[in-house]
Write a structure and sequence with these properties.
The protein has 139 residues and is α/β, with parallel strands linked by helices. Helices cover 21% and strands 34% of the residues. The chain is built from three helices and eight strands. Helix 2 packs antiparallel against helix 3. The protein starts with 7 loop residues before the first helix and ends with a strand.
Length: 139
Amino acid sequence: MDFETVSAPDFGRGLSGFGVNLLVRDVPRHTRFLSRVFGMQVHRASRDFAIIGYHGQLLQLHADSTYHANPLLSLLPEAGPRGGGAELRLFHTDPDRAAEAAQTEGGVILQPPTDKPHGLREAYILDPDGYVWVPSRPL
């Protein structure tokens, strides 16, 4: 599927497995953050929507304004973090490099890169919309 030209109906019909969609306040800002901090591939980015690739997996970003008729929008806080309780884990991203880049891209380091007893070096990074990303690599 060509993510740059696929129609919305064809894209929707082509999705399978497990999907992640994040509602964000500013799609362009969020795509820059994901690309610069975690090296994600950005496809079809606009003010309202983006398709993001990461090691063969897809992630979608939607602007709040695109969810005007969706019940999820009423649950989002107007300010503050949005992703409390969820960890978005990136198993192929260097946590040291990501933590360094996050500081220049408006992210907050909740936990600096740390060697963990479960065999991974990982960091906890809060993005500008309040979602927690956990870049990691094997020790």
